[in-house]
Amino acid sequence: MSVFSLETVKMSKRFGKFTALNGIDLKVTQGEVFGYIGPNGSGKTTTIRVLLGILQASEGSAKVFEMDAWKDAVKIHRRIAYVPGDVNLWPNLTGGEVIDLFVSLRGNNSRNRVQDKSRREKLLKMFDLDPSKKCRTYSKGNRQKVALVAALASDADLYILDEPTSGLDPLMEQVFQANVLELKNSGKGVFLSSHIMSEVEKLCDRIAIIREGEIVETGTLAQLRHLMRITMHVETERTVENLAGLAGVHDITEHQGVLSFQVDSGDIGGVVSLIGQYGVKRLESTQPTLEDLFMHHYNAKDGEQS
């Protein structure tokens, strides 16, 4: 039986006449990295604020560790770690003081505090962060590192990360990704909101795409890829006939003897059977990326299909 780190059922949030979230259904299990993607204004941050108990849902339910996200926020916060995309710190405190403050707020016992401190020192080295400097001297990237070290040094059960690598260079993004995979392997739940498609594609077990406050797709990347066409490039010994008449084949072009076209994933078998009769010299197929899937949904707005 799955143990849910968080679960929302028909969760909606309205601000006056404006509906920011409309019937959101999400489930994140322990030991899972769940990706939450959508453009600015789609409802990602509002979702996270409801889960954190900062906002109360207008309708439906939002639970974290089977507790009400609004009513039981204090209890829930002892078991979660949160990283926002835009980190603001106390300018007169050092980075180390801020990290220690955030870790201490979780109320760990003395044994956990020793483990957190050891983890803290390791993370400071990994993220190349000087904790002795005042926060007012930090760049955006270093402020983000403070928040990441504070979160990752805590022995939380659920990590809620809202654009966590904003401002980080590619090397630090790799460090972050390694730490998230370590959390997953230790059975922690991770809810990751990100604009970086390669990051989500690399880390996440399942993905939800949100558009204008509604979830338009949820599933593993493999499941979502079935919604998209696969691009194929084929070179044969003889001219392929009747390709355009096959079900699921679209946008056929030919250049220097190479046929290029798109095919619906469920119709690949028929295409391969046909072209196999003409002596295949070269066959390449390209799976859609997460970015392709994302743009497919956003280009499909107002009835336009990508």
Q: Your description of this structure?
A:
It is built from ten helices and 14 strands. The strands form three sheets. The chain has a six-stranded mixed β-sheet, with helices on both faces. Strands 2-1-4-5 form a four-stranded antiparallel β-sheet, with helices on one face. The protein is an alpha/beta fold. 32% of the residues lie in helices and 30% in strands. The longest helix is centred in the middle third of the chain and has 17 residues. The protein starts with a strand and ends in a 7-residue tail after the last helix. The chain has two domains: 221 residues, P-loop containing nucleotide triphosphate hydrolases (Rossmann fold, 3-Layer(aba) Sandwich), CATH 3.40.50; 59 residues, Alpha-Beta Plaits, CATH 3.30.70.
What fold name goes in the CATH topology slot of the largest domain?
Rossmann fold
Order of helices and strands: EEEHEEHEHHHEHEHEEHEEEHEH
- Termini Cα gap: 39 Å
Q: Please count the beta strands (DSSP E, at least 2 residues each).
A: 14
Radius of gyration: 23 Å
Number of domain modules: 2
SS-based class:
alpha/beta
Strand numbers in spatial order across the main sheet:
6-7-8-3-9-10
Describe the sheet with the most strands: 6 strands, mixed
Helical coverage, percent range: 25-40%
Residue windows where pLDDT falls under 50 for at least 5 positions: 302-306
On the 0 to 100 scale, the average pLDDT is 88
The CATH homologous superfamily of the largest domain is termed: P-loop containing nucleotide triphosphate hydrolases
CA-based shape: elongated
Strand fraction:
25-35%
Q: In oligomeric terms, what are we looking at? A: single chain
- Using the coordinates above, name the CATH class of the largest domain: Alpha Beta
Give the number of helices.
10
CATH architecture classification name of the largest domain: 3-Layer(aba) Sandwich
